[in-house]
């Protein structure tokens, strides 16, 4: 768990204008910066970035957040990765309570990562330069229908013939980083004597693989002829794990948002060719089966994932593995589909032969996950016989057990029940599904806290906009908030505690980031504050003091009205009466002192 104090310090050090400006073209507009929103299509800029609030807000689609939130939403990073990325840019080291790595070892890891990243960047630049003069490689790409524009967009290059071309790029060709990055191979004689070093990639079209930050972490190389292997990938390295990365995701992020879905294909050339043909929202797994990590990354980018596979047996096996990776992560607000092309086609050839609209129709009519699952477990069994129906249920059991309790799971259970002459309740009981959906007796929905209104809403707004004001609220103020009701008082007390936990330098951005991680309760209020001009904290401090005095005076007045019916003795009533009136006089004097002098 990253301490909140670190998050606060980080958001105080980074500049959201610089963070967002790397991805969105911003222009100064008054106190803020404006640009075209990266989260929805628009022709007139409605996306604002506030340097004072350190917050972004789109008046068109409502997207809003901090620098951390922007990296999560735009780049598809996880929270920790986004924090680490920002921290690295400002020279901070993210603390980790569970991290037992000694500082010296951590520094060595950081130095290694930097050396590998620099090596991959230099190699990528070299391969790109080589492509410009490689007539055979250019002819191959043109024959595949690719333009120089799309090749440049994906950073494609060419590894020429020769065993040690990278020697001209790296003065120290024997550097350890070249082996650790997978750019070269060390071959040792059988007797362990002489060692020969040579380039891994030779005479291949080079596809750089980028991470979510756009850094080159690996390569895929394709031969120009019928040589083997057709595709050669970088090995697993400290930078690159095939089960974690997707080719083309960095380049496709905006297109995925624009299209509303991501198309997952099987190869580099599919991605590049589809981008050329009008489908820039395509990505590919890297010569490995689809993993849960792949699915997580995709579902961070969009609510709809369409897997495209060849219609042969290998394609069906790949689709089954993708199905199994998706099931533990699928929820009712996410959609996964499976597209199977005719065996003679890949996406590239299909679009070129049948056209853009035909492929778009295929995507639209792709098979939903529920239908694919039911087909997988029933296709090879005779459902007219008890044994066939039992075997279908047997095959379905582990798949359904891996799913979260949801409406989608219930729909699949009902579909399976209909096919196997059972009831949904029987299947859920037989499969021992966690939290059965069809038979559970639902408790009445728990009522949330009442929505804040009036003075309570104004106080909440002021404290969220200016968290340091929380330090001006004492125990008596928190006690006075009970006049709003116990649940409202609890909400205000929690907010005051959260604001004080940020420290005296707490900011709107830091508190917003914290509240977002706790509950969606404040989302609408945060969006309102983000869309409004910056308010004056000093004026807010005076207003808050006045508001708290009025609440305290109202509470004392109510107590005074009920004092004589409280059941106290006359002496006790007299003592408390004097205490109340003294407190009222003190509050009125404070109000008079705070009033502007005329």
UniProtKB/TrEMBL annotation:
Cofactor(s) the protein requires to work: Zn(2+)
MF GO annotations: DNA binding; DNA-directed RNA polymerase activity; zinc ion binding
Co-factor: note: Binds 1 zinc ion per monomer.
Keyword Zinc part of the UniProt annotation: yes
BP terms from Gene Ontology: DNA replication, synthesis of primer
Gene3D superfamilies assigned: 3.40.1360.10, DNA primase, catalytic core, N-terminal domain, DnaG, RNA polymerase domain, helical bundle, Zinc finger, CHC2-type domain
Stated name of the protein: DNA primase
Keyword terms of this UniProt record: DNA replication, DNA-binding, DNA-directed RNA polymerase, Magnesium, Metal-binding, Nucleotidyltransferase, Primosome, Transcription, Transferase, Zinc, Zinc-finger
Domain comment (free text): Contains an N-terminal zinc-binding domain, a central core domain that contains the primase activity, and a C-terminal DnaB-binding domain.
Highest taxon above the source species: Bacteria
Reaction(s) catalysed by this chain's protein: ssDNA + n NTP = ssDNA/pppN(pN)n-1 hybrid + (n-1) diphosphate
Family the UniProt entry places it in: Belongs to the DnaG primase family.
PANTHER family per record: DNA PRIMASE
Gene Ontology cellular-component terms listed: cytoplasm; DNA-directed RNA polymerase complex; primosome complex
Residue ranges covered by zinc fingers (CHC2-type): 37-61
HAMAP family cross-referenced by the UniProt entry: DNA_primase_DnaG (MF_00974)
Pfam families: DnaB_bind (PF10410), DNAG_N (PF08275), Toprim_2 (PF13155), Zn_ribbon_DnaG (PF01807)
EC numbers on record: 2.7.7.101
InterPro entries associated with the record: DNA_primase_core_N_sf, DNA_primase_DnaB-bd, DNA_primase_DnaG, DNA_primase_Znf_CHC2, DnaG_bac, DNAG_N, DnaG_primase, TOPRIM_DnaG_bac
Function text: RNA polymerase that catalyzes the synthesis of short RNA molecules used as primers for DNA polymerase during DNA replication.
CDD domains on file: TOPRIM_DnaG_primases
Domain Toprim: 260-342
